[in-house]
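Before going further, it is useful to explain how the protein records used in this thesis are read. An example of such a record is reproduced below.

***
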Amino acid sequence: ILGSIGSESVYGDAYAVCVRDKDDECKGYWTRSAFHLALKLQTVNTRLGAQKLWNEIHFLRYGQQMVEKDICINFPLVYKLVVMPNVVTAKHDIVSKKGSLTIGILNELANGDFGHWIKHNTFGYNGLGKFLVQGFMALYVVQHMWKSYHNDLHVGNFLYNDLEKPKRFVYDVVGKGRIVID
């Protein structure tokens, strides 16, 4: 575990992590000369908690399909789900309650969330507009294609990645045309 990341969440804690192979080499997502990933830990000890976790996993899997099919790239890539009974990591105060189950969601590490972005970036209306349109396009896909709602919208759930080169994003809005972001 490299450290805590993201805004506070009621449903879990997120960490930047390094996954080591049998040769003790750090493996994972390549960012700025280091391999690392994000790990979201959610402890489940009630039926309601299990349902919320199942909904999140289901949501992430559909998001992955949208990225893979090039429908909407604004979802995090999920690499693995890990079941971890009795998780204890004193260094970062990760302790699951006895009789509970902790699920780890290992996914793409973003550079930050909307709360971080808005505090640490100088931007004009153009930059803010691009950020918001891309986030709302993901919500549009959830509502239009999945006939569902997010139900946990907060600044910590809108993630971003810094791009090395500018990229064009094209969104086809059913019955309305295209939105192009340069």
